[in-house]
Structure prediction request, 310 residues.
Amino acid sequence: MSVAERTAVSPSARAVRLARVREIASAYVALTKPRIMLFLLFTAYSAMIVAHRGLPDIQSTIVCLIGLALSSGGSAAVNMWYDRDIDAVMSRTAERPLPSGLVKPWHALALGLTLGVLSVLVFWVFDDPLAAVFSAVGYVYYAVVYTMWLKRRTPQNIVIGGGAGAFPPLVGWAAATGHQSAAAWVMFAVIFLWTPPHFWALALYKNKDYVRAGIPMMPVVRGAVVTKVQMFVYAMLLLAASVLLAPSVRHPIVFVASALVFGFVFLSSTWRLLRTSAVDAEAKQAKRTFLQSLMYLPAVFGAAVLCTLL
Prediction:
């Protein structure tokens, strides 16, 4: 090949290499489950605002969000490393970085462990040791207790494991104040009680995936009816728990009214799901319930923020 020919093809080759680099970089970002991370950061920052009865200072905010992002991303990477075998056989996870071959397993593990250590260091050095402790416990809870112990062993995996996603308000509260309070634990309880109906709704309309992967999710082990009954019960408990946050905001009556509206909307969705028996209709309603659950938690925490700031 002549010099002119090599020169002619080199831009195309560079474009291919650049596209490959971007693809791999995106895969490493995907290891941290960024959409879930943003959700966790939102709940932590909401707790900081409620704890401060206003906007927290910039330094505490930045440190908390960075530290929690490292912890969340690290535990997510460990989760993907450990679950790479079952991710490969589930349709909704088959394109994740490890099953697709874009990232080597030990790279994912190394990234997860490194981010977890950095999270503790960030909190310990720049914020508060209590925040570092809660961040570390949340990391271990998700990466080890839920992923390695509960997920493949018990249909209560989501119930017990729900505590992992509930730690960010505790981290945020500790980062903002240096201590904990009943309100922080109420926010923890809201997320904890929200998790089962949220994930079981997903498991109902993705049931074949979990059967194929051999994961003992509640619909797989106990069936759809039992699952739907428990979802409705958790939705009732969730509604009751949410109003307990009222004394911690500036406008408790407005918050209670908002929380009741959001709670009854979600509760009615779980009730409609419970009343649905036809397979196709059940799958559609389960998907609707899952999507409504995605809106519920931001709505309640957003209401708490607005009723604190305004």
Remarks:
- The chain has a mean pLDDT of 93.
